[in-house]
Amino acid sequence: MALEEFDLAIFGGTGDLSMRKLLPAMYSREFAEDLPAGARILCIGRHVGDTAEFLKQVEKDAKPHIPRETFKAAVWERFCKRIQYVGMDATDPAAYKALVDAMRPEPEITNVFYLATPPALFSKVCNNLSASGLATPNSRVVLEKPLGHDLASAKQINLEVGKIFSETQIFRIDHYLGKETVQNLLALRFGNVLFEPLWRREWISDVQITIAEELGVGNRMGYYETSGALRDMLQNHLLQLLCIVAMEPPTSMTSDAVRDEKLKVLHSLKPFTPVTLAQNVVRGQYRSGHVNGVAVPGYRKEKDANPTSRTETYVAVKTEIDTWRWAGVPFYLRTGKRMADSLAEIVIRFKKIPHSIFTQPNSSFEENCLVIRLQPDEGLHLNLMAKTPGDGMRLKPVELELNFLESFKAPRMEAYERLLLDVLRGRLTLFMRSDELEAAWAWVEPILEYWEQEENEPIPYNAGTWGPAAASALIGRDGLQWREEALPEV
Fold first, then answer.
1. Distance between CA 36 and CA 50 in Å, rounded?
2. Which of 61, 65, 231, 233 lies in disulfide reach of 335, CB 3.0 to 4.6 Å?
3. What is the pLDDT along the chain (490 residues), one digit of tens a residue?
């Protein structure tokens, strides 16, 4: 599907997200020759400056994030000609004259406003776009996370932005939904008959979803101290992955058909009580340790840190989904910084065989397990039992592996590439609807309120480990283990 002519205006155009993700993503579409001849990218920043000066920053900060195999000097030169810098104060209504003068008024041009700004500016920017005449029926707005700080602020954002733009014009972005493996999870579930009869409580023991990072907070302390792992990762990324795993088959791949089913999952999550909050939620904070053999400081000793901070850098949650398909199946979600490895994966563990006929010694039995790996190496792994070569009937676990890089030789899109293309094409399937956002906040809000009332500190864990021991106890009470704890040592 060819793209129509567009102007993409990036608020926060000089920032880290623009340089590391958005501009490299648009360059990749330039390299693929997807962009219309007249398409333009307007980068908006607070500082006075001209385009030539800004392009020097793009050369320094964005160019290094372009894959070497796709970089071509002629393509880069062509791409840079699309970029225009607009220096203005986004909170000042009078400053929008500069943006009005820069953008094209023709109705056949799609105007996209990407708000890579703090959420406190969302309503101000949208109101100023409306007052300046830029918020037209043919325009779209992209809201970057965090989409609120709690349920009340999320509702306020939805209300205020919704006064200016209709729901079909609002693209609430979660870059995890743009990952290739997430798309393949949809294909796995709804494009194959093999798994559907097994994708339910009768055959599945438990589901684990992990997003772990070796990195600490880096230069994001100002943001992270007011956010924490729950707001930064669980409320959005982890819950979105859970919805795709657990949703019922939609009637089609249209945006509302898919998002209706995801919303049903969020509404079916078992609500917390004071007892289950204490039993099924673990909050941790990393202290000093070693990551890949390098000594790293604890969270409270990072640059600009609050030495008495109670902000969590790790959270693990056990939940259940009260539906016929999933009743009684525990879902374990966890995320953390300064972990033993950087990975994102979904583990579907199937139940034990009801009766084993294999009694040979030296056999090693494991439950069948499907692992959907999102990063660093995207692919699918299916663990099965197989006979070892030789005499006798000894069984050992083996792994069937589908590596997407090896199986598909076509160039791969990064998450932001796919999502920006969907914005430009007006496809809403991979973006959160307002009721979806509010349902996710409503489910996690009791956790936030519980932590605010509790005097206990987050549980410390050593950097370079898999988090607090309490997280192992959380899943261990059900006779289970996190996947890396269950793997045999090499």
1. 24
2. 233
3. 678 899 999 999 999 999 999 999 999 999 999 999 999 999 999 988 899 999 999 999 999 999 988 999 999 999 999 999 999 999 999 999 999 999 988 888 999 999 999 898 999 999 999 999 999 998 999 999 889 999 999 999 999 999 999 999 999 999 999 988 888 889 888 988 988 899 999 999 999 999 999 999 988 898 899 999 999 999 999 999 999 999 999 999 999 999 999 999 999 999 999 899 999 999 999 999 999 999 999 999 999 999 999 999 999 999 999 999 999 999 999 999 999 999 999 999 999 888 888 776 665 678 899 999 988 888 888 998 888 888 778 888 888 887 766 666 666 788 999 999 999 999 999 999 999 999 999 999 999 999 988 777 899 999 999 999 999 999 999 999 998 866 654 4
Task: Sketch the domain layout of the chain as residue ranges.
Answer: 6-144, 177-408+446-486
User: Residues with Cβ < 8 Å from 273, sequence gap 6 or more?
Assistant: none
CA dihedral 465, 300, 174, 166 (to 10 degrees): 160
- Asked if the bond preceding 307 is cis, omega within 30° of 0, the reply is no
**Which pair of tokens denotes residue 463?**
């950097």
**Nearest-angstrom CA–CA distance, 472 and 95:** 54
Annotation: binding site for substrate = 175, 179, 213, 232, 337
Q: Where do runs of H (alpha helix) occur along 135-288? A: 151-164, 180-190, 221-229, 239-246, 255-268, 274-280
Q: Strand pairing of 281-287 and 314-319? A: antiparallel
Give the annotated binding-site residues: 46, 145, 175, 179, 213, 232, 337
Measuring CA to CA, which residue among 82, 85, 384, 439 is closest to residue 260? 439
Active site residues: 237
- The architecture (CATH level 2) of 177-408+446-486 comes to 2-Layer Sandwich (3.30)
Nearest 5°: the CA angle 68, 70, 73 is 90
CATH topology of domain 6-144: Rossmann fold (3.40.50)
Question: Rounded CA gap, 265 and 246, in Å?
Answer: 7
pTM (2 decimals)? 0.93
Annotated binding residues for NADP(+): 46, 145
Q: Write the single-letter amino acid at 453.
A: Q
Helix (H, G, I), strand (E, B) or coil at 340: coil
Q: What angle do CA 318, 331, 278 make, to 5 degrees?
A: 5
